[in-house]
Amino acid sequence: MSGLTSLEHDLLGAVEGAPILARTLDWAAINSGTANLDGLARMAATLADAFAQLPGELRLVDPAPVEKVDGLGSLREEPHGQHLVLSVRPQADRRVILTGHMDTVYSREHPFQACDWIDQTTLRGPGTADMKGGLALMLAGLVAYETATPTLGYDVLINSDEETGSLSSAALIAQLAAGKIAALTYEPALPDGGMARARPGSGNYAAVIRGRSAHAGRNPQDGRNAIVAAGDLAMRLAAAVRDGLTINPARIEGGGPNNTVPDLAILHFNLRPRTPELAAEAQGLVDQIVANIGAKHDVQIHIHGHVSRPPKPISPGTQSLYNLVGTAAADLGQPMTWKDTGGVCDGNNIAACGVPVLDTMGALGGAIHSPDEFLLVPSLADRARLTALVMHRLDRNGVPA
Question: Residue 110 carries which DSSP code?
């Protein structure tokens, strides 16, 4: 490993792979699907015990209220788990934020609940890459960093709702990100070590369509078919896709007996703009399409949702952070590649606060959000060393101009 000082060599020597793997296996065995409140509570308590070895104040923060459209087209509060926050050296002149999430996409009822080995270095398991392994290596990297007389302050945020858009933690993310010189987020990197650069924004929407019921045989002309209007709306939204903007109609709820004109439908769709300008344009586009469909079918349409993940372009400060991390990785013999991605994460929210963020600091793996999710085990120690080295260099030098 070239380019390292003797102090950095000593710091990296504190990282051992076996304890990181053991934690990853233990944490992956806890089902913490976003809706599994009992599992999230158990996960939060387990993480709190583990992260307590770091200095600072650790607390669990209640989720902010979040409303969701139910199957009847009404708003109801959606429960979420608590979020974990650790604040270290809060009075330091320079501070960073490190973020991850404890929730996974695998529900309590999902068949994918256990880990198994694909080969000697590849572990398949729920949340192993996304991101129980990332949390374990983040902790190991911070423990190693703390051995080198640190002065940098930092907050660790591990939220419980990232997989569903971080709606109950968005305000907390913004609060903790404010004033930070840099941010590291522990989403998984690609199997080849590839790191995400720019990301689009994302918003989840529900269009509640209310028509008028009527007998399907006796007087259908008196009805206003909400299902037909929903289908038309879905087609119009899908056709509005353009360069830098995707709209994905995902699900239609509603309807009723075959002999009744349905008076309620709910269209769920996702919108992803590549730039802030496209995000504003897309909102106007949706409003226009909704108004046209409402008039055409004589139905009432109410839209719930917004772009909750702003687009993440690459600012000069972000590029400087990428350069710092890329150099550190090269010094560790971990060459990186960089590419723009269509996915979104809490890095989007942090970037919107004007903070440089690198959001794929986690383990190497793939097939996430599927029963084939896997983790490349050697990357646990490698990425923990990268965390320790990056934190040390941020401490000594900050983010280069």
Answer: -
- Regarding whether 146 and 27 lie in a shared domain, the answer is yes
pLDDT at 57 over 90: yes
Nearest C-alpha neighbor of 126 from the set 135, 140, 118, 116: 116
What is the C-alpha separation between 216 and 227, in angstroms, rounded? 13
CA separation for the pair 36, 79 (Å, rounded)? 10
Q: Residue 249: give its domain's CATH number.
A: 3.30.70.360
Question: Is residue 191 located within the same domain as residue 244?
Answer: no
Same-domain check for residues 377 and 253: no
How, if at all, do strands 83-88 and 57-61 pair?
antiparallel
- Position 401 scores a pLDDT of 73
**Helix, strand and coil in the chain, % to nearest 5:** 35, 25, 40
Helix, coil or strand: residue 297? helix
Distance CA 119, CA 123 (A): 7
Provide the pLDDT for residue 236: 98
Q: Which two tokens stand for residue 297?
A: 């079918």
- Give the per-residue pLDDT at 1: 62
Per-residue confidence at 301, pLDDT binned at 50, 70, 90? very high
Q: What is the mean pLDDT of residues 32-57?
A: 98
Does residue 144 belong to any structural domain of this protein?
yes
Residue 24, domain CATH: 3.40.630.10
Q: Determine contact, residues 95/153, Cβ cutoff 8 Å.
A: yes
Q: What is the largest CA-CA distance in the chain?
A: 87
The answer to whether residue 398 scores a pLDDT higher than 70 is yes
Share of the chain above pLDDT 70, in %: 100
Q: What is the pTM of this model?
A: 0.95
Domain interval for residue 118: 6-68+79-199+312-397
User: Quick one: average pLDDT of 267-292?
Assistant: 95
Residues in Cβ contact with 365 at an 8 Å cutoff, skipping those fewer than 6 apart: 128, 129, 130, 133, 188, 189, 191, 373, 374, 375, 376, 379
Q: Which of 266, 290, 309 is at the close of a domain?
A: 309
Residue 157 has pLDDT above 90, yes or no: yes
Same domain (yes/no): 341, 287: no
Residue 341 CA to residue 329 CA, distance in Å, equals 21
